[in-house]
Amino acid sequence: MEHFTRLPATVAWLLAFLLLLCPAVTYSEDPRPLTNSLGMRFAKISAGSFRMGATDGGDFDEQPAHTARISRDFFLGVYEITQADWQTVMGENPSWFSPTGPARADVGKRDTRCHPVDHVTWHEAVGFCRRLSDLPAEKQAGRTYRLPTEAEWEFACRAGTTTTFSTGHELSPRHACFATTEPKPVGSFPPNAWGLFDMHGNVWEWCADWYDPGYFVRSPAADPTGPPEGTGKVIRGGAWNSTATYCRSSNRDFTRATRRDIGNGLRVVCVPIGAL
């Protein structure tokens, strides 16, 4: 909370008020979390190796399963970026599922500020990271933000597991928001073993990488960042309207960087000072 003292009193009051409006959110029990000036929480993901890709069949673009190594620790958002986060940083809320969005007739008067932001393009997601990095309190703290690589995302999603989902070989409505009619507030379901919520379902999450269906055949073993170009940008995790198949830890999909889809949101990496 010490960072709030560096913000204008009206902003600090608003952030405190928004936290009270999100009773579904319970923060990670990881003893090493990082909290930024907006109250966003990040879990430390320690460097390590894992089996990337489908180990139980999957689609052709998930083959071959291979060992990938993340050589440096990184901090990944405990939650997907919420509508409140986006509004605070960007000054607007583009979400389909919001009181002012295209689905406002279905949303009605419900408070969706703790829902994940959706309906954002890849370029807008990168712009969010840039603006968050440019906040005075974040500059003073030496923190910058970016989208995760596809390898970082799958490493964090699996959280040490080798099964189809981080929950095992099956995903049920007790585990995630999928095969339903709309997203849920972030943190509505149990986190994975590394304290990350909603890695399966709720909204697709943009990654930094270009998509190439054959990339796994030639990807480097250490810190792969994707091909130099591609047909679109990688999205991972599935969404509220996806079947469980699309929510698998290894499932890969893509969207054009300029396309605005109702199921696309984001989760960001925080890069503290000295980690560059």
Key features of this structure:
single chain, 276 residues, alpha+beta, paralog of FGE (formylglycine-generating enzyme), 5-stranded antiparallel beta sheet, 4-stranded mixed beta sheet, globular
Rg (CA only): 18 Å
**In one word, what is the shape?**
globular
Q: Could you name the CATH class? A: Alpha Beta
CATH architecture call: Alpha-Beta Complex
Terminal residue distance: 25 Å
How confident is the prediction overall: mean pLDDT?
Answer: 90
Strand adjacency order, main sheet = 1-2-5-11-6
The domain tally reads 1
Supply the CATH superfamily name.
paralog of FGE (formylglycine-generating enzyme)
Could you name the CATH topology? paralog of FGE (formylglycine-generating enzyme)
Series of secondary-structure elements, N-terminal to C-terminal: HEEEEEHHHHEHEHEEEE
- Which blocks of ≥5 consecutive residues have pLDDT under 50? 1-30
What's the number of extended β-strand segments? Answer: 11
Query: Biggest sheet: strands, sense, closure?
Result: 5 strands, antiparallel
Percent strand = 15-25%
Give the fraction of residues assigned to helices: 10-25%
| Helix/sheet category | alpha+beta
Per DSSP, the total helix count is 7
Short précis:
Helices cover 20% and strands 16% of the residues. With 276 residues, the chain is an alpha+beta fold. The protein has a five-stranded antiparallel beta sheet. The chain has a four-stranded mixed beta sheet with strand order 9-8-7-10. It has a two-stranded antiparallel ribbon with strand order 3-4.
